Amino acid sequence: MGSNILIAIPAYNEEITIGSVVSLSKKYGDVLVVDDGSKDRTSEIAQNAGAIVVRHKRNKGKGKALKTAFKYALSKDYDVVVCIDADGQHNPEEIPLLLKPILEDEADLVIGSRYLNSAYKNIPLYRRLGLWVLNMTTNVASNVKITDSQSGFRALNRRALESLDLSSAGYNVESEMIARLSEKGLRIREVPINVRYDVPNKHKKHPIAHGVGVLAKIVGLIGYKRPLLLFGVLSLLSFIASGILAYWALKPYYTQGGEIYLTQAIGAGIFAIIGIQLFVAGLTLNALTQMIKGR
Q1: Range(s) of the domain holding residue 156
Q2: pLDDT in tens, 14-53
C-alpha cells in the first residue's frame, strides 16, 4: 500500500506474539515497534521479523510509547500511522479497513470498534460494564459519540499527527487522543473489527485497577475541558446528599413532634455549603476556560 504508511506497535514483554504481529503487518507498510522497556526478547524478535525497533530503556507507559512512534512518523514524513497492539488481540489483516477512510480523505482518525459487530459479545460482562463507563465519560470529555474509545487499533493521517499534543503516559492515551482531536474539529470515524481474547499475554494490569486509573484521568480531562459540567454534577450530588440528610434530620420533628436530629442537620448544612462552593468553582473555571479559548 505504499511506504508512506507506518504500522506502529507499542510493546512491553510481548516476545510470544510480536513476531507474528510484525510479519502480518509488513504487507501494509513499514513496521515500527516501540519496545517500552521490555525485559524479554521483544526487541530481538521484532527486528528479526523485519520491524524497525526503537527501545525505551525503562517502561514509560503506552502513552509515551505512542508519542515516540508519532514523533518518528513525523520525522520520517509518513502520511498515515496505524496503531495496533502487540499482544495479538487485533488482526493485522484488518488494517485495510482502518486505512480506507483515511486514504479516501473521509476521516483524520479511524478507530476499530468491536461494538459495531458481534465481537463485543466475547468480552466478559464486568469488562463490558467498565468499558461502557469509560466510553460514556470519554464521550462527555470529547463531545463526540464513540462506541469503543479504548480500542488500541486505530489509524491517523498526518493532519491528526501534527495536531496531537498528548500528555498521557498510560492507557488513557486512547481517550485523550479522541478528546484532543475532536476539540480541534478533526473528523473521527469508527469501523467494525474483530478482537481475540485468547491471547498468551492478557492485560498487564488488573482490570479494575486499569479501569479506575483510566477513568480518573478522563474525569480530570473533563474537568479541564468542561469544568462547569464536572463541578455542576458534583455540586448536584452534594445538594442531593444535603437534601437526604435534611429530610432525615427533620422527619421526627414533622411526623412525631420530636426533636431534630442534630448530627444529620449539621451534615446537611455541610453538604449544602460544599455544593455551593463546587458550583461557584465550576462557574469560575468555566469562565477562565472560555477566556483561554478566546485568546
Answers
A1: 5-225
A2: 999 999 999 999 999 999 999 999 999 999 999 999 999 9
Question: CB within 8 A of 278, min separation 6: which ones?
Answer: 231, 232, 234, 235, 238
Predicted model pTM: 0.71
Give yes or no for a contact between 233 and 152, defined as CB atoms under 8 angstroms apart. no
Helix (H) or strand (E) holding 32: strand 30-36
Amino acid at 295: R
Q: Which residues sit opposite 8 in a β-bridge?
A: 32, 83
Which amino acid makes up residue 55? R
247 in the same domain as 167: no
Question: What is the number of domains present in the chain?
Answer: 2
pLDDT digits (tens, 9 = 90+) for 66-102: 999 999 999 999 999 999 999 999 999 999 999 999 9
Q: How far apart are CA 295 and CA 293, in angstroms?
A: 6
